[in-house]
């Protein structure tokens, strides 16, 4: 049996942490652009539902408008689902999507 060095143990622990972090946020909450909702409504909704600051919500709204969609939040499915439901109830087009490998 070989003796493990501190470097080997640290490297293995670091790899375990990195894998756990990748698995922690496998989904994204995507908001889609539409011709119905105003900037102010989307901004207010992102603040109230997703916990964004006004500046974050404003930036997300601009990106959504210009790119057609934007992942406004990343996380575990069970944490994103209530946010998705709240946005959809407000008339905002949103989906939960599995994130591709980073």
TrEMBL record:
Domain Adaptor protein ClpS core as annotated: residue spans? 24-85
Signal peptide per UniProt: none
User: Which keywords belong to this entry?
Assistant: Hydrolase, Protease
Which GO molecular function, any one, fits this protein according to its record?
peptidase activity
Mind listing the GO biological process terms from this record? proteolysis
Highest taxon above the source species: Bacteria
Family matches, as SUPFAM superfamilies: ClpS-like
One Pfam family from the UniProt entry?
A: ClpS
Q: What is this protein called?
A: ATP-dependent Clp protease adaptor ClpS
Q: Which organism is it from?
A: Chitinophaga qingshengii
């Amino acid at each position: 049996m070989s003796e493990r060095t501190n470097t080997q143990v640290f490297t293995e622990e670091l790899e375990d942490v990195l894998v756990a972090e990748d698995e922690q946020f496998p989904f994204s909450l995507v908001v889609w652009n539409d011709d119905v909702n105003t900037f102010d409504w989307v901004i207010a909704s992102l603040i109230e539902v997703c916990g964004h600051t006004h500046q974050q919500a404003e930036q997300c709204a601009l990106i959504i408008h210009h790119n057609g969609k934007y992942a406004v939040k990343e996380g575990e499915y069970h944490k994103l689902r209530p946010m998705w439901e709240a946005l959809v109830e407000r008339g905002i087009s949103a989906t939960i999507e599995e994130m591709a490998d980073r």
